[in-house]
Every structure is written in C-alpha cells, then in structure tokens.
Design a protein that fits this description.
- With about 100 residues, the protein is mainly alpha-helical.
- The protein is about 65% helix and about 0% strand.
C-alpha cells in the first residue's frame, strides 16, 4: 500500500540532514557512489500521514518566508547604501570651484 505524500513535505525531507544521512548510509553498503533502487524504497518508510506532512511543511515554510523577506530587505538596503556611498564620494571628489567675487 502506498501512502499519499505532500510535494512540499517531500521537498523539505529530501533536503534534510536526516535524508542525507540515509543516503550516505546506503552508499556505504555499495562499492560505487550510488544508491540501489531497492534501498531507495526504504528511505520513505517513516512517511507521516498526509495531514501531518502538510503541518510540518507549513512549520518549515513560515520561518523560511521570514528569512526570504529579511534577505529582500537586506538587498534593498545594500542598494540604497551603495547609492548613498556613490553620492557622497561624488561630492567629496568633485573639484572645488573658486568662490565668486
């Protein structure tokens, strides 16, 4: 019997250190750097019920969304900082004109 899965949960699971450890352990059992298909089926034996997958994915995505917002704000602030720096340098390095008499 196959259990239904939530795509976003599966994406987060496959990028997790828990999944990476499973892959590494399976690769240790072969002389080549790959995981046999028979071993791959065992990676998902602990797949939680669908409602739990949705909840877990939502819990992961909430702080990720906040991090994305912070990153966007930092990018905007860096652009503003660079624009201000160029303006200050332009003014500081502009030739000084003689005072009008």
């Amino acid at each position: 019997m196959t259990r239904p899965f939530f795509n976003r949960y599966l994406m987060w699971f496959m990028t997790s250190t828990a999944f990476a450890r499973q892959v590494d352990e399976a690769k240790k059992q072969t002389p080549r750097d790959f995981v046999p298909i028979s071993e791959q089926y065992q990676f998902f034996h602990a797949l939680p019920p669908l409602a739990e997958q949705v909840r877990i994915a939502a819990e992961i995505e909430e702080p990720v969304a906040i991090c994305d917002q912070v990153e966007a704000q930092l990018t905007t602030a860096e652009g503003e900082r660079n624009r201000l720096l160029k303006a200050v340098l332009h003014d500081a390095l502009a030739p000084v004109s003689a005072p009008a008499t």
